[in-house]
Amino acid sequence: MVQVLNLSLIFFCVILQINAQKVNVCKKFINYYLKSPQVCYYNPDQNTEVPDIVTRLGYPIESYNVTTEDNYILTVFRLPQPGAKPIFLQHGIALSAICFVDTLESSLAFVLYDAGYDVWIGNFRGNRYSNKHVTLDPNTEEYWNFSFHEMGKFDLKAQLGLVYNETGKKIYYVGYSMGTTASYIYNILHPEDASEKLDIIVSLAPIVYMKNIPSSVAQIAPLWPLIEPLVTKLTHGVILQRSNVSINLIKTLCLGNLFEMFACQALIQSLFGYDNDQLNPETLPVTMVQNMEAISTKTISHYVQFILYGKFSYFKFNEETNKQIYGNAIPPLYNISSLNVPIYLMYGSNDFFSTIKNVDKFFNELPEDTKQNGKYLVQLKKFNHADFITAKDIKSLVYDPLIKFLNNSILQS
Ligand SMILES: *[C@@H]1O[C@H](CO)[C@@H](O)[C@H](O)[C@H]1NC(C)=O
Ligand SMILES: *[C@@H]1O[C@H](CO)[C@@H](O)[C@H](O)[C@H]1NC(C)=O
Ligand SMILES: *[C@@H]1O[C@H](CO)[C@@H](O)[C@H](O)[C@H]1NC(C)=O
Ligand SMILES: *[C@@H]1O[C@H](CO)[C@@H](O)[C@H](O)[C@H]1NC(C)=O
Ligand SMILES: *[C@@H]1O[C@H](CO)[C@@H](O)[C@H](O)[C@H]1NC(C)=O
Ligand SMILES: *[C@@H]1O[C@H](CO)[C@@H](O)[C@H](O)[C@H]1NC(C)=O
């Protein structure tokens, strides 16, 4: 009798073990205890790339390459709907185009495609899809010598030029987080180009002013300038690069069991804002693995300057270099008054990076003719920074209102 019990126990454990390897997502958090095959399954999106995911979910996909004026080679994806209004999505820091397709049918790219748009998705320099350069080796400090300034100045100019040339139509721009910062820099540095090519800039979690943000990064920010030179030397200017080691580390430390899942989320939410309610059990193991991408140390330095000085300013070098580059010991501010594309801000009450106060300050400084559309506060008290791409109810909370706005837009042409 004991033998039989033992045997069946071993058998049960073997089954669980097999399941543990095959199954990677469950419909509810509680299901992660047993990972029973009725409510858990293997989602390949955790381990594949943008074209695989898009195809798997039944949508068409195309890839384009474009070279920037400073010779970075970028990939732009498209879910083509020729003749329809083009919409261009641009990801934030530590992300790639995959963040717009990795939450099953509620992913922004699919929701927009279903609403009848020709969907284009950009990739900033340095991520896994845009990691080539005509002459520079990506394993050098020279390659990683950029912040979101260059992403706005060069990457957006090239990518939007591509979309405009291919479609012959003006574009709706939708940026998230750093994709908003870079869009304002693009518009400020290239006002004619931007007003020729863009109908509107929609900003999800806009980042311009970062004064007094409650994020835990604000506590670390003052230390960053002290350690940055050493970090840059040791890492040739890039951290969080994707590798099988880093991916397996996340799977082992943050997705191994329910306790780990919530422990890692607690850490992450100290950065983004606390909101366990909107964690999506079915896509969390996918987004945790996929939404992680290299960050140049210069990008961190530039945002740290935003946090420490509270200004929307060009990159601050040392005094001598500032004089050389800007003709002044202090770097200039980006001129918000020279924005000339209409802007629509969508923001959350519990966003530790993009606070209501800082969004309001930016909105108040916008030129009158760019802010006629007003702004939209997401109707959920706990809505945080990450929720804009991963929230369980993202479609009803943000994407449906976004499409309603775009559909009704007087700019529709
Ligand atoms: C884009 O560039 C990559 C890498 O250089 C290459 O593998 C791919 O075939 C190119 N795609 C297109 C559409 O040219
Ligand atoms: C990075 O660019 C700045 C100017 O933008 C230049 O002064 C500096 O020498 C560059 N550093 C490297 C490592 O290329
Ligand atoms: C778009 O077309 C213009 C005019 O022909 C050309 O100058 C530009 O380089 C093109 N841009 C891209 C990204 O293809
Ligand atoms: C990483 O793992 C994948 C599949 O798991 C494999 O195809 C790839 O070669 C590995 N890459 C490296 C650098 O080991
Ligand atoms: C900022 O842009 C506005 C509008 O183009 C212009 O009137 C103003 O002089 C600019 N300010 C600076 C400091 O360049
Ligand atoms: C937007 O327009 C598309 C196409 O006309 C339509 O299918 C969709 O339901 C509309 N969505 C909203 C929220 O108005």
3D structure, described in words:
This protein has helices at 2-22, 50-56, 108-114, 148-167, 178-189, 191-197, 217-220, 224-235, 244-254, 258-272, 284-290, 297-309, 319-326, 356-365, 387-390, 394-408; strands at residues 25-26, 40-41, 62-67, 72-79, 86-90, 118-121, 132-133, 171-176, 198-204, 238-239, 295-296, 343-347, 375-377. It is of the alpha/beta class. It has two domains: 1-42; 55-216 and 224-304 and 335-412, Rossmann fold, CATH 3.40.50. β3 and β4 (72-79) form a beta hairpin. α4 (148-167) packs across α5 and α5 (178-189) packs across α6. The longest helix is centred in the N-terminal third of the chain and has 21 residues, at 2-22. It is globular. 43% of the residues are buried. One 2-acetamido-2-deoxy-beta-D-glucopyranose binds at residues 66, 158, 161-162, 165. The site of one 2-acetamido-2-deoxy-beta-D-glucopyranose has 6 residues, from α16.
